[in-house]
Design goal:
Oligomer: single chain
Number of strands: 8
Strand content: 35-45%
Order of helices and strands: HHEEHEEEEEE
Number of domains: 1
Shape: elongated
Radius of gyration: 24 Å
Strand order of the largest sheet: 2-1-8-7-4-3
Distance between the termini: 75 Å
CATH topology: Nuclear Transport Factor 2, Chain: A
Largest sheet: 6 strands, mixed
CATH architecture: Roll
Number of helices: 3
């Protein structure tokens, strides 16, 4: 009878350790996910700030060297950081510094894998975009989807798709 109680006690202790390990692992995963989500929010915030300041170099620094961009004109695959920075530089040369900055809201982060996430961001250009030649792009809204990847401990934008938001 004594061996039975010892066996039951050892089995109960093993189950308790396994349960505690699973609970701690779950808590660690939630904590790790929150840390990664904060890092992604910081990345998007810095990317948006670079856009608002029309800073091509800073914006491109938050993207992978080869990045996919889909805008209203079609799809681009930029093969280098220089090509990427040049695209943003050309874009920003057309925008007047007097143009009102957009309102931006990070709507959703979805982790596909621990090192890959989809991020949806709403952009509202309530005054449109004033161009350097005096023309104005009328007010519009868009939903942007970013694919962000973590490489060597750093989150970067690997793809960016812009879609006009219909009322």
């Amino acid at each position: 009878m004594g061996k039975f109680f010892i066996t039951v006690a050892v089995a109960a202790a093993a189950c308790a350790l396994l349960l505690e390990s699973a609970v701690l692992d779950g808590a660690w995963r939630r904590s790790s996910r929150l840390t990664e989500e904060r890092a992604i929010r910081a990345l998007i915030s810095e990317w948006v700030e670079a856009y608002r300041n029309l800073d091509a170099k800073r914006l491109a620094a938050h993207e992978t060297h080869a990045v996919e961009v889909v805008d209203r004109f079609g799809q681009l695959r930029l093969q280098s950081a220089t090509e990427n920075e040049q695209l943003w530089s050309d874009t920003f040369e057309a925008i007047s510094r007097k143009s009102a900055p957009p309102t931006v809201t990070l709507d959703h982060i979805e982790f596909l894998r621990p090192e890959v996430a989809l991020v949806q961001v709403s952009w509202q250009f309530s005054e449109g975009i004033l161009l350097v030649d005096g023309d104005r792009i009328p007010p519009f809204s868009e939903i942007d989807t970013y694919v962000v990847t973590k490489t060597q401990g750093v989150w970067l934008v690997a793809a960016h798709s812009m879609q006009e938001k219909k009322p």
